[in-house]
């Protein structure tokens, strides 16, 4: 069977949060969209809701993307049922709260699995399909891919690694016509933003650590702003986007002048009171 002319996109972690918003936009842009997650019930529900009013139903596949065998099955299924793959958005990721002082090797492994190995598995398994379509991979980082504020436990370690994976892969895959980009958002607005880390905060951390971004004084981004950046990365093949935009020069200044960077981070992560 020859491949269809309809572009196909895979969004990992597409059943909730940012991944779901990205899947919605890709549906609106007329992609055939696949979403993955580990929980069949939430995936099925998301796929049903996202398919409402769409010309073609969303496909979903239960897969833990930290497991190479799950990812292999997933990509084989996409190849069989959709015959092509044009865009991958690697959105699976987990944040953290804590101090480096209390960070255990097990927690580092978990965070690297969730934020880095997940993406590595999906990228490696999809290379042949992406080379055929001259496709695009978008990895979802965080401001923690660029700076390492206080109270985020091992999150910055993992998201910095994801940034490294993204830049190296972009250079490696350029000759094959595959683009790899990173979108690094600050805290994203959502109903449970202030309560997600209530159970994860260790003794001795200030209350602000429970807040989005570990209490970083950056206003919550509307999810659409981040989705727009993902679409820009796909359409314009942008290598590296930071949202909110105004933080890019501050981050660059911090990298050029580390003392100034530390001062800025302390200022942005100090409680107002
Ligand atoms: N939320 C923010 O404020 C924010 C800010 C900056 C960056 N980010 C980044 O944006 C991304 C999405 O964050 P979010 O807060 O929107 O996520 P979320 O609401 O926690 O949703 C996570 C999604 O990923 C799925 N998932 C988790 N682990 C998985 C695994 N191993 N295999 C397959 N699916 C898995 C979840 O479904 P199951 O649980 O059913 O598997 C769910 O669909 C992450 O990379 C995060 O680091 C978020």
Automatic annotation (TrEMBL):
One of its GO terms (cellular component) is membrane. InterPro entries: KR_dom, NAD(P)-bd_dom_sf, Sc_DH/Rdtase_CS, SDR_fam. Keywords: Oxidoreductase. It holds the Pfam family adh_short. SUPFAM superfamilies: NAD(P)-binding Rossmann-fold domains. The keyword RNA-binding does not apply. This is Putative oxidoreductase.
């Amino acid at each position: 069977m020859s491949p269809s002319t309809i572009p196909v996109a895979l969004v990992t972690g597409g059943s909730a949060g940012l991944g779901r918003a990205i899947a919605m936009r890709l549906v609106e842009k007329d992609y055939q969209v696949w979403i993955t997650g580990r929980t069949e019930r939430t995936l099925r529900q998301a796929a049903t809701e996202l398919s409402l009013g769409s010309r073609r139903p969303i496909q979903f596949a239960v897969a833990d993307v930290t497991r190479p065998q799950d990812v292999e099955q997933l990509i084989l299924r996409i190849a069989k049922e959709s015959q092509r793959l044009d865009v991958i958005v690697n959105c699976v990721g987990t944040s953290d709260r804590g101090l480096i002082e209390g960070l255990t090797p097990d927690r580092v492994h978990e965070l690297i699995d969730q934020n880095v190995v997940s993406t590595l598995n999906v990228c490696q398994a999809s290379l042949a399909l992406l080379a055929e379509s001259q496709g695009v991979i978008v990895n979802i980082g965080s401001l923690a891919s660029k700076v390492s504020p206080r109270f985020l436990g091992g999150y910055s370690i993992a998201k910095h690694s994801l940034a490294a994976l993204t830049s190296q892969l972009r250079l490696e895959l350029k000759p094959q016509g595959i683009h790899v980009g990173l979108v690094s958002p600050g805290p994203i607005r959502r109903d449970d933003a202030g309560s997600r880390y209530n159970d994860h905060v260790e003794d001795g951390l200030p209350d602000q650590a429970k807040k989005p971004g570990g209490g970083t004084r950056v206003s919550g981004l509307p999810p659409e702003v981040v989705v727009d950046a993902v679409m820009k990365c796909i359409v314009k093949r942008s290598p590296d986007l930071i949202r909110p935009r105004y933080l890019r020069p501050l981050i660059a200044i911090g990298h050029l002048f580390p003392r100034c960077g530390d001062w800025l981070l302390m200022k942005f992560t100090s409680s107002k009171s």
